[in-house]
Amino acid sequence: MSSGPMPTAVTSASEERMRRFLATASHDLQSPLRHIAMYAEILLDELSETLDSEQRESLTAILQKAQTAQRLTKALMSFAAGTPQVSPAPVELGPIVDGLWTELKAEVGANDATFSHHTLPSLNSDAALLSTALKNILANALLYRGAATLHVELAAERSGSDWLIHISDNGRGIEPAHQERIFEPFWKLPQPDAVAGSGLGLTAARELLTALGGDLTLSHSDQTGSRFTIRLPAT
To answer: Which residue, among 233, 225, 231, has the nearest Cα to 165 in the 3D structure?
Structure first.
């Protein structure tokens, strides 16, 4: 009996599960994020005269992070509904990746990991969606690092009307047999020390970058590490 149509059917079912997951999670996050932003704004207004500069800076950061997360969850809800809402604006890539790396190192506890990049371009993109895609790719490198001290390098080059952004690591690499599956929803590398998670990181990153007019590919992977390449419109 032929099994030809099965992969497409399985992939479609997985994508539908992913969209339902994103829709539910984004909807459930809206209320707490709204309250966090509201209370941070109230504290800034009512305690402004009693706060020192460090306290004011911390509250402002909380407010800005909550507002960014609100915009992201709204975008993810629209994406899950099949009508992604993109709000392009000038985005400086360098500060975004530096901030993401600092956050992720603290979250994962990989204090020995290092990160480097050369001069990175300014893009016309949606900062919230782009940041989420980049965070998922960087998190993947941190979570699947090998025995050696992890180093991640980010570089950008112009290719016609696009920017190519390469994210390289010296991690454990991905076996050739698994390289076609890493973008499948809910699929994770089969290994003894399996990393906890939903298996949606790279899937969501690729879908978000597609919504931004670009794409994500695994351009290299072997025992020396992996390189993911993001393509995004230059304008």
So the answer is: 231
- Say if CB 230 and CB 209 are below 8 A apart: yes
Stated as kind and residue range, the H or E segment containing 196 is none
Residue 23 Cα distances to 157, 195, 225, angstroms: 34, 24, 34
Determine the pLDDT at residue 87.
Answer: 84
The full length of the chain comes to: 235
Q: What is the pLDDT of residue 14?
A: 65
Higher pLDDT, 210 or 79: 210
34 pLDDT above the threshold of 60: yes
DSSP state of 194: P
Q: How far is CA 78 from CA 71, 72, 125, 138, in A?
A: 11, 10, 17, 24
Residue 19 CA to residue 41 CA, distance in Å, equals 32
> Tens digit of pLDDT for each residue in 4-31?
444 455 456 666 766 777 677 777 777 8
Beta pairing partners, 154: 117, 167
CA gap 92, 121 in Å, rounded? 7
Cα 175 to Cα 221: distance, rounded to the nearest angstrom: 8
**Rg of the chain taking only CA atoms, in angstroms:** 19
For 172, the token pair is 């454990």
Please give the Cα distance from 199 to 182 (Å, whole number): 9
CA 113 – CA 139 distance, rounded (Å): 12
Please return the burial class of 41, using the count of CB atoms within 10 Å of its CB with bins 0-12, 13-18 and 19+. middle
CB atoms within 10 A of CB 207: 25
